[in-house]
Amino acid sequence: MSTDAPTRTPTVDPATARHLHHLLAAEQRRGRLPSITAGIVRDGALVWSDAIGTTDGRAGGVAADTDTQYRMGSITKTFVAVAVMRLRDAGRLDLLDRFEDHVPGAQFGAATIAQLLSHGAGLQAETNGPWWERTPGGTWDELTGSLVGQRFRAGRRFHYTNVGFAALGELVARAHGTDWFDVVRRDLLEPLGMTRTTTRPSGKAAQGLAVHPFADVLLPEPEHDAGAMAPAGQLWTTAQDLARWAAFAGGDTAEVLSPDTLAEMYEPHTVNDEPGQAWTTAHGLGWQVWNLEGTRYAGHGGSMPGFLAGLRVQTESGDGVVTLTNTTSGLGPVAPALLAAYLEREPRTPEPWHAAGDPSALELVGTWHWGPSVSTAKVVGEHLVLGEPGQARGSRFERVGPDEWVGLDGYHTGEPLRVVRSADGAPSHLDLASFRFTRTPYDPAADVPGGVDEGGWR
Fold first, then answer.
1. Contact 140, 95 (CB under 8 A)
2. 118: helix, coil or strand?
3. Superkingdom of this entry's organism (predicted)?
4. pLDDT in tens, 389-414
5. Which domain holds residue 56?
6. Residue 1 contacts by C-beta under 8 Å, 6 or more apart in sequence?
7. End residue of a domain, out of 345, 371, 404
8. What are residue 425's phi and psi, to 5 degrees?
9. Is residue 212 part of a domain?
10. 134 close to 210: Cβ distance less than 8 angstroms
11. Full-model pTM
């Protein structure tokens, strides 16, 4: 296919759109949500969106739509994390740097930047002052002067911390010599066209509301500037803007961030270990990650008084979903339900198969032996595949030079594979990170480490 071919925005079948609308409307009714808006992303585009309810939760009020602003809460943390990783990629910090190397004076200064990004610093979850989400915030010095600091030894375990992302926001601000949001707006929002993402409500915006648990009445929630705590959950956005961030999370980074760095951010660092439950949720570098029945997702949830939000993408396909609602509680798992319904009704058509293997690697295919264990080597596209990736020590390998390959998966990720040739130039054996793979089990001509018993097989 020509690289000059126009990009076609995926479309949603009308029946699928009606089904998604029904799911959203049913959730709005079930959860007694004043309003809710949602969107589905595929191939970097918002392919479906909808909104139910009114901005003030009253019949006859202003109808919500996909350009209505809501608070995104802790999804804000993903923007701060990307700003930190941009500093890393620019060579201005290392993830193993201590926080105090960049922001001196905090009680938790020995925690590393990576530990703060992954909620592994053991830092206290909340401030010691009044409930920061409902009261105006102060300065960084005021915040740090009131903190206790550590709850756990840094690196010991996952412990979610809003204070940790306040700290990372301060790091971003000091590194650039300006407010953290100025950095986010200039380096992230503007290049991505996210013009409706702000620190305070602007234009059409929903009222943050609490719904009484035992009556159909509403209570407005406060809205304010969170000050030094703002990087933990300050931002307002729309479904359209948040969908662009979901497209970013799905791989359409528009040169704002290296795809390799985004993939690095999705690597699990700390596992959310809930007693009695299987491990399905972890934190990478600023992003929540899920492993659900073998499918990997990344994203983040968000909550502030009067608002709940969600963003989730399949990391392999880039398909994703966003939701925003103006209630303090009551939202069920509608985001994954919407995405699952969309994927079931609008599955991706597999790309046509074409012969694209590397014929120069054909001499390496076939059966190899690591001791008595049998492995099969195949050429798939540009990769040499030894065994089955995802099973035992099966890996794909990428060519990095003549007779030199490097592992891409599992146990052998990053490990070197070298083709060793006999005098006639034919492959004699494979040297994989010191393991010797031979064409026959324990081939004595392949210089097997430790030697081969002279008596041979018996």
1. no
2. coil
3. Bacteria
4. 888 899 999 999 999 999 999 899 99
5. 14-345
6. none
7. 345
8. 90, -5
9. yes
10. no
11. 0.92
